[in-house]
Amino acid sequence: MANVKFFLDTNALLYLSGLKGSDLQDFKTKIEASNSELSTTHVQVDESTKHIKFDKKIDKEYEKKVRSYQRKIDKALGSLKNKEISVRLEDTKIAVFGVSRFGFARFGNEEIGKLYDELRKEIDECQKAKGKPKPLLNIASDATIAVSSLGHDFFITTDKCLFESWLKVIDKYRMLGQQFKVPKIIYARRSPKEVAKQMLGLLS
């Protein structure tokens, strides 16, 4: 059984794959010594490309951008495997039309549905307030990823809006801890070293 369960958002996964040299060896040694587990879901692995047809507002330029992003994810997963960093693929805790993949999503319950709806609203408002609105499909993916971090010790994200929004929703639903193990939300700056540093700092 893992001592510490980390759940990674998409960019945390991407940056972690960039570790090299002594930073990589140090990360692997400490993660293995602590018997920690790294997890993600299919949403991070096939970030929106499999479901892009569901959002009519997405144009060809955006589709090209997403497919380029998908290639980065595929490369990152290959890199992590070559570096012998194991990442466990888990089911999402909610099934969302246009995001979820059959066989990789649980149906969840009413409480999970409320959390998801609230989180999606918070992310949308946060992105608009920062002047960086996201397509609804991306917001749905972000909310699905965050809600799926329930049951883990730590949720590692490099997305400030996702970080702030998930904290707000967890704080609002204080009774959540009676039903689920609520992860501590950790924000990491966007670099391989920073993601690894934040994670290893939680083991000391």
Please report the distance between the alpha carbons of the first and last residues: 19 Å
Number of strands: 5
Q: Can you tell me the CATH architecture?
A: 3-Layer(aba) Sandwich
Q: What proportion of the residues form beta strands (DSSP E)?
A: 5-15%
| CA-based gyration radius | 16 Å
Indicate the mean pLDDT.
83
Structural class: alpha/beta
- Sequence of secondary-structure elements: EHHEHHEHHEHEH
- The tally of helices reads 8
CATH class: Alpha Beta
Approximately how much helix is present in the residues?
Answer: 40-55%
Q: pLDDT under 50 segments (min length 5)?
A: 48-54
Order the strands across the largest sheet as they lie in space. Answer: 3-2-1-4-5
The best one-word shape is globular
Largest sheet: 5 strands, parallel
CATH topology: Rossmann fold
Overall domain count: 1
